[in-house]
Design a protein that fits this description.
The chain is α/β, with parallel strands linked by helices. About 40% of the residues lie in helices and about 15% in strands. The chain has one domain: Isochorismatase-like (Rossmann fold, 3-Layer(aba) Sandwich), CATH 3.40.50.850. Strands 1, 2, 3, 4, 5, 6 and 7 form a seven-stranded parallel beta sheet that branches. Helix 3 runs parallel beside helix 8. It is globular, with a radius of gyration of 16 Å. The two termini are about 15 Å apart.
Length: about 200
Amino acid sequence: MAITIHGRAALIVNECQRGVIERGSFSGLVDQVNERGIVPRIAALAEAFRAQGLPVIHAPVAHRPDFADIAPTSLINALSLKGRGMVKGSADAEFVDLLRPHEGDFVIERSSGLIVFIGTALDALLRRMNVETVVLTGVSTNLAIAGCAISAQELGYHVLVPEDCIAGADANTHRVIVQEQIRMIARITSAEDVHSALD
């Protein structure tokens, strides 16, 4: 289905790190990433954005070694405190091979929080680059992607979510959140349609 990209677009690649999507503590998410084959599709989209001179923004989590800025106010925060993984500089925090930042890409790292639009310089960066549309990829459908879609829309961006470039905890959770939540605030599309719109 043909889509329109409003103004200048940026690609956001969320948490495509070894400790999240290769060997993370959430095995269902790792399985879904592999079954859905999202990594090569995201890599191809990133190349297409670079070829058009459009920003590619990586949004990794990299915790402080002391975890001082994480409060046990949610289940996922409590699990982070218990597991003590994804520490800055660790093997878990590394980007997966196909999605390592290239020269000219942007990296917006955060030590806590699930949503890259909150508590980081991302919004200011996008506005300085005159970005009007954000394309969200990566993980997870049920947490960060849904949260980023809501936050970006509230900040005034057009939001595109190529459904074949995201994954959630399990197939049913992914389906329900895409159909019942994300589609209300973002345009659900595909990697192929985003490629066509860029061309």
